[in-house]
Design a protein that fits this description.
heterodimer, A: mainly beta, six-stranded mixed beta sheet, three-stranded antiparallel beta sheet, globular, B: mainly beta, four-stranded antiparallel beta sheet
């Protein structure tokens, strides 16, 4: 169960768009559409922002979108706002009813 | 109000056992699969275990397989994690989370486990 690969950090200015990648393998990210994304602010529990690759839970801003190509999933945040500064994690279903997270990406809004 | 509240954490010596609990309220607990996820201080999230709605299917991360056991009591709206042979590297904040859409939709605030002599 190897962790999914995410960039350690990304940054962008308010109003811009950024994309965070999440690379796995054919046995996890590439195997189905069970990729999800979480936002975690300091000292807080994670919050689900994308499930099943591209679906948004009720109440999550449409500035957040997800996609996948092969073994790599991506989270795009458009119209960056200061409140988006956070750590983002991807997660995928893996084999034998397990899950695997990415290492997390720190988003800095400049 | 939908709520998950973890409890049972604390300071424990290496090699000892601990049982975590997660009390669910505000939703139909028996309709959801459940997970445990941990986060070591200053580190990322690590998924460690899952259990289906009826306890028929479980899954464990390699790092805890054979040492940790997940269980649930739908009549008590509760999830458990029995942890044995604890190691220093098990020190973390342990979260429970619910799952109805193959994602971890709702999270508790976590309970801290510290393994040290």
């Amino acid at each position: 169960q190897s962790a999914l690969t995410q960039p350690a950090s990304v940054s962008g200015s308010p109003g811009q768009s950024i994309t965070i990648s999440c690379t796995g393998a054919s046995s996890d990210v590439g195997n189905d559409n069970l990729v999800s994304w979480y936002q975690q602010h300091p000292g807080k529990a994670p919050k689900l922002i994308i499930f099943e690759v591209s679906k948004r839970p009720s109440g999550v801003s449409n500035r957040f979108s997800g996609s996948k190509s092969g073994n790599t999933a991506s989270l795009t945040i458009s119209g960056l706002q200061a409140e988006d500064e956070s750590v983002y994690y991807c997660c995928s279903y893996a084999h034998n009813n397990t899950r695997v997270f990415g290492g997390g990406t720190q988003l800095t809004v400049l | 109000e939908v709520q998950l509240v973890e409890s049972g954490g604390g300071l424990v010596q290496p090699g000892r056992s601990l049982r975590l609990s997660c009390a669910a309220s505000g939703f139909t607990f028996e309709d959801y699969a459940m997970h445990w996820v941990r986060q070591a201080p200053g580190k990322g999230l690590e998924w460690i275990s899952t259990i289906s709605w009826n306890s028929g299917r479980t899954g464990y991360a390699d790092s805890v397989k054979g040492r940790f056991t997940i269980s649930r009591d739908n009549a008590k709206n509760s999830l458990y994690l029995q942890m044995k042979s604890l190691r220093a590297e098990d020190t973390a904040l342990y979260y429970c989370a619910s799952d109805q859409t193959n994602a971890l939709e709702m999270w508790g605030q976590g309970t801290m486990v510290s393994v040290s002599s």
